[in-house]
Design a protein that fits this description.
Radius of gyration: 28 Å
Strand order of the largest sheet: 18-17-16-19-20-21-22
Strand content: 25-35%
Distance between the termini: 76 Å
């Protein structure tokens, strides 16, 4: 009898799990938006009766529609998905993204010649012709130094694509005197070149290769494809780039800011230690008193970003990873207050705190092995306050950059299963171990503390690469996960653009 009851209970549980999964899938597909692909003849008119296929780039079932009398192919799609576009009479690769919000509509127009496919077939090289092009590559130098902005025509010009490259800065002006490398990925041939006063450069690139543009601070910034095609081939390409001189100017200013911040932190730590000695208390008790003093003054503290963001977003079963270094005392005091108000209804809440190395000397801090990372489940208000004081007291006023990614990598392994990962960070501190980001795949909701004007690009990159989100006291930037190269995001009135796989501040300051 007990075995029958157990089997019945197991079956009931399986059915419940299936229903829950079905409900989850249904909810995930609830958000629908529309995309219209418009097919235009570049010589005038539209294309009717063409099959248009949208294929999800992340994998999944393709959807098909036929262009109507207006040249439009209409699709109803799940929100916030990137698709590759294929059209029966269009030769090329294009993408479209469905709108992020319920009921949103996006229109993508393709304008091309009516004989585009025929030309592609007509001018396609035979296998033998492609082999001759590849043989020509053996006669080229591994590295070519251009002495002017115009390359001399090659002998077998039909094997090369004539390419005019135009570099612009973020203001849309010519990027003059910009040195960069053009590197063929297939044949590993390199061209060293520099733009002229007009920001332009004219080169001949051997067909049948993909070439990357490589700047001093941005390798593989963008790419150029040259297909195996018979006859002459010409391209005019425009790229927007911050520019080496501007990057170095910004790096200099940031280095000065970080040096000043490092000095301030060391002085602040020395003052704190001297105060503890004078009072005859341990650093841990000193930190505990600091938290209590911030709690007393919290009502008059204008920056309430932590409570504002956590109250706005209904994240369940959270793992909160929090920076306890530098000037974060007011913010982990805020976290303590928020926890005091919510801990009874917060199920499965967990914490990871990090202090950038437990008083380790800056010279001894190795990427991925800095340490100072501590885990705690939810145990009650007094326990959390004491734990925060203990972890923060073990840190010091060391260098400004923090081991954020190490804290994420190790902290998520310390924790029990969770649904949402929230990271509370100091916007004034860069990420020293950003190189480890490729090893971390869990979406991160980043709460930025200490934002006055700009946001550090490091934190935008973490949210973008992990498909997470960014949060300030006033904004929830949840669409950053779906952003693509060239798109902008505005935070606190300042614009940032994805350029070469990085976030670049466009607004001048």
């Amino acid at each position: 009898m007990k075995q029958i009851q157990l089997q019945h209970h197991t079956l009931h549980t399986i059915i419940l799990i299936i229903l829950m999964f079905t409900s989850f899938v249904a909810r995930a597909q609830d958000c629908e938006s529309s995309v219209t692909i418009v097919l235009k003849n570049i010589d005038g008119g539209i294309y009717q009766g063409q099959k248009v296929t949208l294929t999800p780039k992340a994998g999944g079932v393709a959807v098909v529609a036929t262009s109507n009398a207006k040249g439009e192919a209409d699709f109803t799609l799940p929100c916030n998905i990137i698709y590759s576009i294929t059209v029966t009479n269009f030769a090329g690769s294009k993408e479209v993204q469905s709108p992020e919000f319920e009921g949103g509509r996006s229109i993508r127009t393709l304008a091309y010649e009516p004989d585009m496919r025929e030309k592609e077939k007509l001018f396609a090289m035979t296998t033998a012709e492609q082999a001759e092009v590849d043989k020509t590559a053996l006669t080229l130098p591994d590295t070519l130094f251009m002495k002017s902005t115009i390359m001399a025509p090659p002998k077998l010009s039909e094997y090369f694509s004539a390419v005019c490259i135009y570099l612009k800065n973020i203001d849309g002006m010519p990027l003059a005197g910009e040195a960069f490398l053009i590197i063929g990925q297939k044949r590993n041939k390199t061209i060293k070149c520099t733009t002229g006063p007009d920001g332009k450069l004219f080169v001949y690139l051997l067909k049948g290769d993909t070439y990357t543009l490589n700047f001093k601070y941005n390798k593989g910034y963008s790419s150029i494809q040259t297909a195996y095609s018979a006859g002459s081939s010409k391209m005019e390409l425009t790229f927007t780039y911050l520019g080496t001189k501007e990057i170095e100017r910004r790096k200099k200013l940031e280095a000065e800011r970080i040096a000043a911040e490092d000095k301030r932190r060391k002085e602040e730590e020395a003052t704190f230690i001297a105060k503890c000695k004078k009072l005859g208390i341990t650093p841990e008790e000193g930190r505990k008193r600091d938290i209590d003093s911030y709690l007393d003054a919290l009502q008059s503290y204008a920056d309430t970003v932590i409570s504002a963001v956590l109250d706005r977003n209904n994240w369940q079963d959270k793992l909160i990873v929090c920076d306890l270094t530098g000037s974060m005392s007011p913010y982990y005091a805020q976290l303590t207050v928020w926890y005091q108000l919510h801990y009874k209804k917060e199920k499965n809440l967990q914490f990871v705190f990090f202090n950038d190395g437990d008083n380790k000397a800056d010279s001894d801090k190795k990427i991925g092995e800095t340490g100072g990372i501590y885990y705690s489940p939810s145990k009650g208000v007094d326990s959390l306050s004491r734990f925060i004081a203990r972890v923060s007291s073990r840190g010091s006023g060391g260098d400004c950059a923090e081991n954020n990614i190490e804290a994420l990598l190790k902290g998520t392994k310390m924790a029990t299963p969770f649904k949402e990962l929230v990271m509370i960070v100091d916007n004034n501190s860069p990420i020293k171990d950003i190189s480890l980001l490729t090893k971390f795949k869990v979406p991160v909701h980043i709460i930025l503390c200490g934002v006055i004007d700009w946001v550090l690009a490091d934190y935008l990159l973490v949210a973008w690469k992990t498909k997470g989100s960014v949060h300030t006291i006033e904004q929830d930037i949840t669409n950053i996960a779906s952003m693509m190269e060239g798109q902008d995001v505005v935070i606190n009135g300042i614009t940032y653009r994805i350029m070469g796989g990085e976030f670049v501040r466009i607004t001048k300051m």
